[in-house]
Amino acid sequence: MSEQIETKRPKAKGSKHRYFWRGCRYLWPYRAKVAISIAAAFFVGLALTGGLTTMLPIMQVLINGDTMPEWMYRQTAQARLKVKLVGDPGIVQVSQVSDGPGKRAGLHVGDEIIDAPTPAGAPPSPFPVESIDTSRLEVNAASYRAGEVMRRIAWAGSVVQLNIRGHGSVGVTMEPLKWYYAIGLRVIQHIPLRPVTAVAVIFAMLACLTLVGSVMRFFQEHLSDKAAILAANDIRRRVYDRVLRIPLSSLSQQGASDATSRLITDVDILQDGFKTVLGQSIQEPIKATMMFGLALYLSWELTLLIVLLIPLMAIMMRKFGKKMRRASRAALRSSSSLLGQIDGTLVGIRVVKGYNAEKFERRRYTKILDKLVDELLRMSRVDAISSPVMESIIMLIAGLVVLVAAYMVTEKQTLTQPDFFTVMFALAVIADSLRKASKVNNALQKANAAGARIFETLDMKPEREIGSLVGTMNDGAIAPRKLPPLRSRIEFQDIFFTYPNATSPALCGVSLSVPKGQSVAIVGRNGSGKTTLLALLERFFDPDSGRILIDGIDIRTASRTSLREQISLVTQDSHIFPGTIAENIAYGESLTSPDEPDSPERRALFERIEQAARQAFAHDFIMEKPGGYNMQLGGLGSQVSGGQKQRLCIARAIFHQSPILILDEATSQVDAESEHLIHQAIEQLMHERTTFVIAHRFSTILSADTIVVMERGKIVAQGKHEELLNSSEVYQQLYERQLIGAKWE
């Protein structure tokens, strides 16, 4: 069967980001970096939350005139009594009673606690209750008395006797002292009573938290980016490897520019998605979660109001995400077409200039570019409109929250001013995280579209898995055999082949037997099937029916590697790879040996390179080049002429010393003198190699042992030159046209 492959993208099932999450598997080898990055993001959120929490006592001092210790004692006393105490300094009065110890003991709103016993085992009081030097401390004595009362309640044991003004002593069974309150009480012992000094100490703690948060943020961003870059590099390596191993039929349908686009543009977009998911999509939710916890602690009513309004944002994010995904897919297709246009124009720039087609190519380029711009602008519109819409929704939600919060502060008095400002700041951080989340969703949609194209390539079956008899025998567990070197003959038996999507066959019942060491010239009009027949020999394609045998072995049962090791190929389009002249001749061999740069093996390798160049009559012009064999050539080989490139390719085929040599129009770009010399070299090789020659010049094929004439995918004649001139009308026509062309030359 011929090598055909289904290239339709499967419909995504399950997650809307299916291909992106599939790509995230490549992050697994770098899980340690990802784990450290996540831990660092957690510490960044912790530092932010801790920094905001340290602002509470500062605001309490600046707004209500409290001292730092008094604020801490009030918070602890409220938590243990389950009541709210008036925030004014100098008074310990109940303003709200919740279900808990205070309510069970009979405390009511308006009760004023004037005293409590000194708790056993508590640290010394920071307040000079018996002796107050107001001139030195600049704080009134009443404030210290209220602070001392709350300190005693905070440090009280399981039961405490509270002295209530007008009601006498009331026994209260207290809530246990939580560990975090205990830590806070210990820390507050070291905070100065003087407000300015206390604020300075708190700001010093805030600066330390900020420094820790900045260091953690560096590690979070650096390690997440590093993991994303390395994972994208692994994907790019896998895609490149798969492109090298997919069948020619699939690659020709996909196009070189499309494969290039997937290797570069699509992987870059997927890499940006990795950076996003390891960066903002981890850091922002952690920050939002911690801020949400703080806001929930300070005012659960306001926080739950926000939770009820979040689904509206989720609906809008999903809608914008769908639009972004569709626009991104279209833009990637247009980008691929643009690369194809650029590549085709630059490779054929001489033809473009020769036909004065600059304006034509410019119009064609502009048309593709305009389509790409339309798709990019469509993406930009979706991206641009998503932010203001989301921000407008956030603003409406924030306005509603502020309105409810103002009611709680001024009317209900269930929320203090410092708590209100802290909750508002926490909600602002949450809103900012949600705003960034909308950008994250857009980035993931782009990455998912790119991932779909990448995995479409990775899911293509490589050559070794398709079009082979191996795997269809018995239970499919037979491994392909290693093909031994050619000993006897090559046979084509009743070969039929049709290119994918073609309407007519390229080969129809071709049979040919070539003994080892013989040279066979294949001639025919363009499209007669000459190149296709030899492409089947190298298994660039497999025949629809019929067999190709080497020494009686069906080549479909042999590994492609062992088959192609026996064949050297020179094509009509001479290709030069980036590297030195020596590296191009010894293509596939490593010439770099840093440990032993002048080893005997390396010297022997360079001797083979020079010998091959001499046989291809390339040595003289190579030595004229700056650097000789070490001259660097670009990917298109612009530093050498067309004939010189062809001779380098012939030298490459000679160097590899394969028993089978295929010359497909190998002398088409060589001048007459070089062609004559190359023919002499080829004739010397014919005794050692089995040679197939495809040529339009009859001077190239006259020395062949057998000439095969092809017409419309069939062999219509074969024999020697003189025989065919008498017996084959097609050969006669080809020869006469060659003679007429030679006269006109």
Sequence-ordered SSE layout with sheet pairings:
Elements: H1 18-23, H2 31-64, H3 68-81, E1 83-85, E2 94-97, H4 101-104, E3 113-115, H5 134-137, H6 141-154, E4 159-164, E5 168-173, H7 179-188, H8 195-245, H9 248-254, H10 256-278, H11 280-298, H12 300-347, H13 349-354, H14 358-412, H15 417-458, E6 489-497, E7 507-515, E8 519-524, H16 530-537, E9 545-550, E10 553-554, H17 560-564, E11 567-570, E12 579-580, H18 581-585, H19 600-615, H20 619-624, E13 632-633, H21 642-655, E14 660-664, H22 672-685, E15 690-694, H23 698-701, E16 706-711, E17 714-719, H24 721-727, H25 729-744
Parallel strand pairs: 8-15, 8-16, 11-14, 14-15
Antiparallel strand pairs: 1-2, 3-4, 4-5, 6-7, 6-9, 9-10, 12-13, 16-17
What does this structure look like?
It is a single chain. By secondary structure, this protein is an alpha/beta fold. It has 25 helices and 17 strands. A 6-stranded mixed β-sheet has the order 11-14-15-8-16-17, with helices on both faces. A 4-stranded antiparallel β-sheet has the order 7-6-9-10, covered by helices on one side. Helix 10 runs antiparallel to helix 15 and helix 12 runs parallel beside helix 15. The longest helix has 55 residues, at 358-412. The radius of gyration is 41 Å and the shape is elongated. The protein starts with 17 loop residues before the first helix and ends with a helix. Mean pLDDT is 77; it is low at 1-14, 130-140, 472-477 and 740-745.
